Automatic annotation (TrEMBL):
Major subcellular location class: cytoplasm
Protein name: Probable butyrate kinase
Keyword match Secreted: no
The keyword Nucleotide-binding appears for this protein: yes
One GO CC annotation: cytoplasm
E.C. numbers: 2.7.2.7
Annotated keywords: ATP-binding, Cytoplasm, Kinase, Nucleotide-binding, Transferase
GO biological process: acetate metabolic process
Gene3D superfamilies given in the database record: 3.30.420.40
Record-stated family: Belongs to the acetokinase family.
């Protein structure tokens, strides 16, 4: 990687992460928590843009960091229509879709491209997004469902999933990502399990829509008939059910807490409910890993685990015991999101990857025989 200077910006629901890189070296990193009361002052997400921008500039000024020599500003993508993986130039079309949440998902990540654009305009640099959550590289067999007109889409932690696979390929197998097959998991507040075949994420779960394993705040897959009965018995609206998919499901639904550390501490103290909940989540992750291995016809070079919960040794040991017959299991605790954004931009600047253009059209609409 050349010695480019790259600033990465990752806006979250209650925080904004920033990091400045020179080549592979991180020169500065900060995760700023936002006061909930402060964010509530804004009528919508778009109005938060100047607040977050000024906070970032203030932090950098305090640290004595100037941005005049930054080559690329990279923002966390979001709000975009389904696209192939890769690094994309921030264009007016991409910005328009991010501002208007073209994919229907309202999330602070959509501010990332907008912040990167503002900084790039001010300092005469480039603006990019890398493997946003809207990446869709599903193979055709993964798209159809048993309901005509309802086809599968995915929402996953594409940025961290792909970066974990890219790093493992280079450092462990000494190959290119495009030469390898993996089952890659991101296990944190949300849980993504995905199949990667020669550089493409050919299958995975729509974790925003309620697929896959349960997670601390997500319900995971539930039988449709059971869910309909639950809606009827509890007099719920569609909005209530959507919250179970992303906010009020999983650990929250069962115990009222989302902290995996607190849940495992309860289990250690003899709380059988907490123990069963923890082990059920791991069991469901293992089932999903097996499913993705089948997608790859058993030709799996590795099972890669990333995300915050991978710091838990029990979780890693259980998955390793259950799934290592498929392929070696390797743990990468935490996440590479900031590094991934910088690395994606650097690969473009080094000529290793082509800078892609956002088309504003879904990468897949329907089968040609429909």
């Amino acid at each position: 990687m050349s010695e480019y200077k790259i600033l990465t910006v990752n806006p979250g629901s209650t925080s904004t992460k920033i990091a400045l890189f020179k080549g592979e070296q991180c020169l500065y990193s900060k995760n700023v928590s936002h006061d909930a009361a402060e964010l509530e002052k804004f009528h919508n997400l778009t109005e938060q843009l100047p607040y977050r921008r000024d906070m970032i500039l203030g932090l950098l000024k305090e640290a004595g960091i100037t941005l005049e020599d930054v080559d690329v500003f990279v923002g966390r993508g979001g709000g975009l229509l389904a696209m192939e993986g890769g690094t994309y130039e921030v264009t007016e079309l991409l910005l328009d879709h991010a501002r208007n949440f073209a994919n229907g998902v309202v999330h602070p990540a959509s501010l990332g491209s907008q912040l990167a654009h503002e900084f790039a305009e001010t300092y005469g640099a480039k603006a990019m997004v890398v493997n946003p959550p809207d990446v869709d590289e599903l193979q055709d067999l993964a798209r159809m469902t048993g309901i005509k007109g309802v086809n599968r889409i995915i929402h996953l932690h594409a940025l961290n999933l792909k970066e974990t696979a890219i790093r493992h390929s280079k450092s462990v197998l000494h190959k290119k990502y495009e030469q390898c097959n993996y089952v890659v998991c991101h296990i944190g507040g949300g849980i993504s399990v995905s199949a990667h075949r020669q550089g493409r994420m050919v299958d995975g779960y729509d974790i925003v829509g309620g697929e896959g394993p349960m997670a601390p705040t997500r319900c995971g897959s539930v039988a449709v008939a059971d869910l309909l009965a639950y809606i009827r018995d509890n007099d719920l609206e569609i909005a209530d059910v959507k919250k179970l998919c992303t906010r009020n499901g999983g650990f929250i639904s069962h115990t009222g807490i989302s902290d995996a550390l607190e849940l495992t501490e309860r289990a250690k103290k003899g709380d059988r409910y907490a123990d069963m909940l923890w082990n059920t989540m791991i069991y469901q992750i293992e089932k999903c890993i097996g499913s993705m291995a089948a997608v790859l016809h058993g030709k799996v070079d590795g099972i890669l685990l990333g995300g915050g919960m991978v710091h838990n040794k029990d979780l890693v040991e259980q998955i390793t015991r259950t799934c290592s017959f498929i392929a070696p299991v390797t743990a990468y605790p935490g996440e590479f999101e900031m590094e991934a954004m910088a690395a994606g931009a650097a690969r473009v600047l080094d000529g290793e990857e082509e800078l892609k253009q956002y088309t504003g059209k879904k990468v897949w609409e329907k089968f040609d025989f429909e």
